[in-house]
Design goal:
The structure holds two protein chains of two kinds.
Chain A lengths: L2 H17 L1 H21 L7 E7 L4 H12 L3 E6 L3 H10 L4 E5 L3 H7 L2 E8 L3 H11 L8 E7 L8 H7 L6 H31 L1 H6 L5 H31 L7 H25 L3 H18 L11 H9 L1 H13 L9 H21 L6
Parallel strand pairs in A: 1-2, 1-3, 4-5
Antiparallel strand pairs in A: 3-4
Chain B lengths: L8 E12 L2 E12 L3 E5 L6 H8 L7 E6 L2 E3 L3 H4 L3 E4 L11 H12 L3 H14 L15 H12 L6 E5 L7 H16 L3 E6 L2 H6 L2 E6 L2 E6 L1 H6 L5 E6 L2 H8 L5 E7 L2 E6 L6 H11 L4 E5 L4 H17 L1
Parallel strand pairs in B: 3-8, 3-9, 6-7, 7-8
Antiparallel strand pairs in B: 1-2, 1-4, 4-5, 9-10, 11-13, 11-14, 12-13
Helix pairs in contact in B: 3-4, 3-5
Classes of the chains: A alpha/beta, B alpha/beta.
Chain lengths: ~375, ~325
Amino acid sequence: MNLRRLWAVVLKELRQMRRDRITLAMIVGIPVMQLVLFGYAINLNVRGLAAGIADQANTAGSRAAVMDLLATGVVAPVVETRTPDELVALLRRGEISVGIAVPPDFEQRKAQGREAVQVMVDGSDTSVQGAAAQLAQMPLDGSARLREAPLASTPPAAPIDVVAFYNPERRSAVNIVPGLIGVILTMTMVLFTGVSIVRERERGNMELLIATPLSRTELMVGKVLPFIAIGLVQTTVILALGLWLFTVPVRGSVLDVYLAAGLLILANLTLGLMISTKAQSQFQAMQMTFFVFLPSILLSGFMFPFAGMPQVVRWLAEVLPLTHFLRLIRGIMLRGAGLAEMWIDVAALLAFTAVMMGAAILRFHKRLD
Amino acid sequence: MNTPAEGELAIRARGLTKRFGALVAVDHVDLAVPRRNVYGFLGPNGSGKSTTIRMLCGLLTPSEGEIDVLGLAIPAQAEALRKRIGYMTQKFSLFEDLTARENLEFLADVQGVPRARAKRRIDELVEQYHFADRQKQLAGTMSGGQKQRLALACAVIDEPELLFLDEPTSAVDPESRRDFWEKLFELADAGTTLLVSTHYMDEAERCHRIAILDRGVLVADGTPAELTAGLAGRTLLVTAEDPRHAQRALVGVEGVLSVAQIGNSLRVLTADDLGDARERVGDALASSGQKAGIDETTPNLEDVFVSATHDGERERAA
């Protein structure tokens, strides 16, 4: 590898990037937009859930208990019914998200220390379920306890453990922001390099490049290097905003955070290069990027807990760089772990990078046929 | 026809063939390009000029045939060749979002022009190719002629021994074309071998030697003088009162290959194996009631081209 030729490619990429306003806007725009969007929109502090109330006891104590629940602001009463069965029907029709049933023997149950109030929850909506779980933790003037019975949409009478099995774990901004670093890097890094070689082919630059002494490795590495810097800038933007807007903790070392981000950036850039050698047009490169992006978001553990997935899907997820990055970044930022303790995921990312880079270089020919 | 000695050749190809599926783009072409020459590739679009050039510089793998360029076996030694050649693609292939100077700098780095020399060389080219006031202009915003000049400047940045130019002037106005050819001859005088493809006859006439390609087949090659001399006595100039009427009368007459109107006269190319073609032309004109004068005229490259491609057609039909 000739360093001067390598630098020539890097310099060219940087100069082109500087003049490409859309790419420049994407570098900072995407992290800011997604962070604000996801950080605020995916919010588990749900308020104003439509609630139905069936107070069969109708004593001073039961009314006070219901008022306590309403005072949290999490639920807002929309309808009152006479029996819990009517609440179930309303839930099924989707007219209410939460049903609060107070049995006729409320005072007696309270005195005996048994469950005194039942909160029925529409378990088909995970955030509602999460909110109701908060309700359930609320003390009812000392001895009274609430029993939570999530009502899954299918089957309606599913036992609680089954419902929990397929329902995502509770999340919050603290959990989402570290993951967002990974999601944003996956999207932008794969896309940037994914279109880069195809674009040169489309514009006719490639015929000039392959007729020069520039080697395949110099071209590939030269295209990847500038984006490592871009990726680290994005990481910084997300971290800073996460800290400022959502007070996300960084319990481990900041250096480890950047090292982990660097590993993911490399893995994604080389994946993008691989896509670039395969795609015939920028549009195809875009399609292939989303083909990788969607499973990354859904299977990596960003959206749904990894533990709940079938074994085959887990194997598939192990191939995705984002899966390993999420384990690293959550470990570092939230649990204060060090990179060395999670060396398996570090090794997985390095292996992915090496395989993709090798494949991209081998697949790229300095020939037109 | 004199064939140049082997040692003096920059390019030697034997039986060069390229198939794309069922299509034979280049069909057993033999080439000999002498050093320090401007060698023209003449042919209509789709005749295999670009494919041949791409095979010669190692960008396409030939289906058959042997290539020797600057003493290197191609495509096996293509990588070594890339340091010694310049290649100007048919489509503008420089970076439109880089400035003129940035493009030159990039190619100087990539071609490995020694750093100390690179700046001097770029300044020299900027001066020579009239970019002094456009160094900071983005290549994409330049006119067709400026783009071609820049592409040429980039192709010669490392002073290559051999320069491939694929239809360099197809999108350029006549004045820019003339300037561009001046530059090509300056390069040839300085010792560079140039292989230029074109579909302009006037450009072909300026080449030291030309090869005519028609549907992938080499139908003629030699110096323009040799090629036109081969047609001596076969071109007639017919002056008629009503040239269009006369043209209709001549089309289809046995032994007449082509009739082209040039102003008020007709240029008629006759087949070589019909010695009495001139008589037949006279008869055909007389029988259509046309008064016309028939004179012999000097053949030009267009006649060579028409004759050569016509021969090709006849062979294919046989």
